[in-house]
Design brief:
By secondary structure, the chain is an alpha/beta fold. The chain is built from 12 helices and 6 strands. The chain folds into 2 domains: 1-28; 31-349, SGNH hydrolase (Rossmann fold). The strands form 2 sheets. The chain has a 4-stranded parallel sheet with strand order 1-2-3-4, covered by helices on one side. It has a two-stranded parallel ribbon with strand order 5-6. Helix 5 (132-150) packs across helix 6 (152-161) and helix 8 (189-209) runs parallel beside helix 10 (242-263).
Amino acid sequence: MDHLLSERTLVTVVLVFFANRVRNAEAVNATYPALFAFGDSILDTGNNNGLGTFSKCNFPPYGGDFGEPTGRFCNGKIPTDLIAGDLGIKQTVPAYLSDNLSVDDLLTGVSFASGGSGNDNLTATTLQVLTLSDQLQNFKDYIQKLNASVGPQKAASIVSNGLYLFSAGNNDIALTYTLNFAGSTSQNFTSYADSLVGWGSNFLNNLYQLGARHVWVLSTLPLGCLPGPRSVKGGLFRVCSNDINDEAQFFNTKLKEEVSTLKNQPNLPNFDVTFIDVYNPMMNLIQNPSSQGFTNIDSGCCGTGLLETALLCNALSVLCQNTSEYLFWDSAHPTQRAYELIVDDILKANNIPRFLADSRANST
């Protein structure tokens, strides 16, 4: 009897030990207490839902693999969610303008990004979405709410130790410049790119002044290879537009240089700002699709896949049968699976381990 009692006691101790380890692993992330996102549709988790804009997607078939349409420009999760999950912060990041934010949401981060926005205010105002200035104002409002919820000291700690994602430039190049919004192409692209980088740098400076210290600045996608630009600029065979890709690469090079400058400015001490290359991980998938099981890399899953995005991709659209074989969900945005592979490459390239190896398996 004593022998059996001892065995049972040992088993109980072991189970309690491992149970506590599991709970601790789920509750405490490795580095950042919260994640915040600014910029465009790559990071927008639903801030456009209540805006009077055509640049929204809070309706089917968007969000089909997520469980419901949320305002994410994807069939499922986007980099905002995936990075937060991989870093052990939380599985999904709500939009700041959501109607049902909880205190827990405030503590662990929200997205301020707005699909269709960019470094150029003209981009956002033309599409009637949130400019970067609007997003900064919402961040200021957020800080006030956080102060009221947990007190200034804890709020300041969350803000300074949180991770910030910033994606802008995609719409400025693919829409404002390429489609010549308000005569934007009257200047050469070199000048326009310099302006875009300058506006982005000003935003990052303002973000720093509000307390942000850890910022990932995302490059653009290979914009000339998106289904929409292929249809408009790619000719009969819808090849990638080299001109648009060249512009994206030129902008990304300038942006990377500016990020390096900001990181080393003496008037911005402890500014942990990092350039994140999204262009090449995505281009690798486009050039080597079979390595990851993709059978379609030039059209979106929604509708004809040639031009449909936002309101043109809707409940009446015919969908592909298997989203995991499509690189693109609509004519401008990758599928969740493509985003997962891109985020994997980003984390590996920057020597950032996924905190919870099964974080995606436990997702919605």
